[in-house]
Prior knowledge:
Mean pLDDT: 91
Low-confidence stretches: none
Helix content: 10-25%
Radius of gyration: 15 Å
Number of strands: 9
Number of helices: 4
Largest sheet: 7 strands, mixed
Strand order of the largest sheet: 2-1-3-4-9-8-7
Order of helices and strands: EHEEHEHEEEEEH
Amino acid sequence: MKVLIxxxxxxxxxxIYNEFLCITQNVEVVSYLEFSKVDYLEFDIICLGPGPxxxxxxxxxxxxTKLLIAAARKSQIHLLGICLGHQLIHIALDRSxxxxxxxxxxxxxxxxxxxxxxxxxxxxxESFLVQHYNSWAIVxxxxxxxxxxxxxxxxxxxxxxxxxxxxxxxxxxxxxGTSCPKAFFKQCLV
Length: 190
């Protein structure tokens, strides 16, 4: 199994790298500035990692994100988006983003998943503490035909989305403030 992590100049990339090393020793990290030089179909899992700033600052990456989504829908890869990566995937699918009135940086939140067939056994019906570092969020009131399961908060903001080959998290599963990070990364193996 080969994993590619697209690094958006974020220190959490190293935590993500270490989580994937627990799954496979074949993990590469490439800067988002070098994405056009990568043959993404050589990889089984591609992770769009977190990053600073706002998603609009990465508009040059939108077309590449659309290619990755298309490849995932054809079962050629599994696409994982974390924080900024989550937002990039949903923006590429024409969903709306909103700036949070109160950014949530370094805060934990308890979330629970319903038992759903797309979730791996360690996520089904469980509750987790997850760590957030975001000032922006995807609006969950717009239905996406791509995802068979989505989790949103009480304010209507998307926290996670799952399809057969695309997984996104607005929170940081690799953070020390997230309980059971391995369960979130193993979702890519379902």
